[in-house]
Amino acid sequence: QVQLWESGPGLVKPSQTLALTCTVSGGSITTAYHDWSWIRQPPGKGLEWMGAIRYDGITYYSPSLESRTSISRDTSSNQFTLQLNSVTPEDTAVYYCARGLPDEYAYRGQGTQVTVSS
Q1: Would you say 71 and 91 are in contact if contact means Cβ atoms under 8 Å apart?
Q2: Which residues on adjacent β-strands are paired with residue 19?
Q3: I need a surface site. Which of 37, 81, 102, 105 has the fewest CB within 10 A?
């Protein structure tokens, strides 16, 4: 059974960089042909896919967030990370990591609340 859990700061100040880590157990992030995504859900809104890293390390991003987003991985720790630069209060959301792409998430973490506030 694949399990994912997110970790990182719950509070980030405006203009700073948000950094979150997703730790995966029960499966390797290098196993073909899986994608590993970051998703968020702002208060009162639906899920928003932010980007993903493929089993081979290729990354791709939502066009609306691409200029501020970076996803990387540490295969030795079976983790992948999200960095979101220049955050604003509009980036306040519950952030999730998941295996898969929109409409086909096989597994998802429980989520972590991130608030952007001074």
Answers
A1: no
A2: 83
A3: 102
Q: Say what the pLDDT of residue 103 is.
A: 84
β-strand pairing of 11-12 with 112-116: parallel
Cβ atoms 83, 17 nearer than 8 A: yes
Tokens of 36: 């590993």
The torsion of the CA quartet 82, 86, 90, 94, rounded to 10 degrees, works out to 20
Residues 6+ apart with CB under 8 A from 55: 29, 30, 31, 32, 33, 34, 35, 36
Per-residue pLDDT of 25-42, as tens digits, reads 999 999 999 999 999 999
pLDDT along the chain (118 residues), means of 10: 96 97 97 97 96 97 97 98 98 97 93 97
CA 24 to chain centre: 12
Beta strands in 8-109 (DSSP E): 11-12, 18-25, 35-41, 48-54, 59-61, 69-74, 79-84, 93-99, 107-108
